[in-house]
Amino acid sequence: MNRHIIDLFAGPGGWSEGLRRLGHTDTGFEIDAAACATRAAAGHRTIRTDVAAYPTAPLVGKVAGLIASPPCQTFSAAGLRAGTDDIALCHQALDDLAAGHDTRPILRAACADPRSLLAVEPLRYALDTRPDWIALEEVPSVEPLFAHTARILRSLGYSAWVGLLNAADYGVPQTRRRAFLLASAARPVSPPDPTHAASAEPESLFGPGRSGWVTMANVLHLPAGDVITRGEHHTGGNRFTTTGPAWALTARARSWTLRVGNRSSATRRPVDAPAPTLLFGHSLNDVAWLDDNGMPVRRLSTVEASLLQDFPADYPWTGSRTKQFEQIGNAVPPGLAAAVLRSVLTPVSFPLAVAA
């Protein structure tokens, strides 16, 4: 029987792109129409469904790997943090599932934000399908729930690791910190070794040191041809060629900074540093380039956001501008996904057939 990699809350394809870089494919479970359309355009297999309502019985014996990035808005520092009030209910749901009792409907009704309980869905799927390996990702505040999940998985014979990883340490041009849970029934697990550091390291007796963090300047190159740096506008901007090594920004932009947020304390980073964590949502229009006087120049473009999230410049984002940026900001950077998956991936997995 063929066994598959399934990706819960798959979004636009961050994990899928990471798997693709490793020569594997997955089947994403996703409810958002725009994210499903993006996945389809990128060639990623998808079942459009509500993960919390999807029955696990048809998957028993068919799952080699389980990936999940539950929606983070309820726990995110950029959101209302209703999940903080629901954390005890989430812990109770984990214990109840481990004991064979599905109390999700009752507990969901008691939550300040019903989405909070989505954080327990990976355990439900893991208990019912017993995959060979598991990889979960969420905002840092969910780490205690991941630690609880890991304890349950260890009681079932899995090796499990929980901790925080910085995407910049794995070649992504963004200092995005997220909580991860890695588990395997077949081998001891540990976090992937970082490939990059804040400062480049010299060669030693043990081999070459880590490269320095990848910066925004390093990646803001567009495909060959003429490029107009006009952001999301339809007129104006500067035209230049990218037939050789070039920036997606004009030479004048070497002194620009990227601002994320609209408060006086908003994070600002020079273009020769990695981007901060890209947060869009209600702050979409506040992710902008500033000139050397600190004055706004223009908003971040979709292509630039895609590159800073470690997706290709031509990744086929679909939906409104707001939906495209929402997908980008929520996605796992593919390079980080690939680094994580290398530590748990089994040799062979097959795509899951989807009924037309």
Secondary-structure map:
Layout: E1 4-8, H1 14-21, E2 27-30, H2 33-42, E3 45-48, E4 63-68, H3 82-98, H4 104-110, H5 121-129, E5 133-138, H6 143-155, E6 159-166, E7 177-184, E8 196-197, E9 211-212, H7 216-219, E10 226-228, E11 239-241, E12 257-260, E13 267-270, E14 287-290, E15 296-299, H8 302-308, H9 321-330, H10 334-342
Parallel strand pairs: 1-2, 1-4, 2-3, 4-5, 8-9
Antiparallel strand pairs: 5-7, 6-7, 10-11, 12-13, 12-14, 14-15
Helix pairs in contact: 1-10, 3-4, 3-6
Q: Characteristics of this structure?
A:
356 residues, Rossmann fold, seven-stranded mixed β-sheet, four-stranded antiparallel β-sheet, 10 helices, 15 strands, 19% strand
Q: What is the helical fraction, as a range of percent?
A: 25-40%
The general outline is globular
- State the major sheet: 7 strands, mixed
The count of β-strands is 15
Distance between the first and last residues' Cα: 21 Å
How do the strands line up in the largest sheet? 3-2-1-4-5-7-6
Count of domain modules: 2
CATH architecture of the largest domain: 3-Layer(aba) Sandwich
Which value, in Å, is the CA radius of gyration? Answer: 21 Å
Derived from helix and strand composition plus strand pairing, the structural class reads alpha/beta
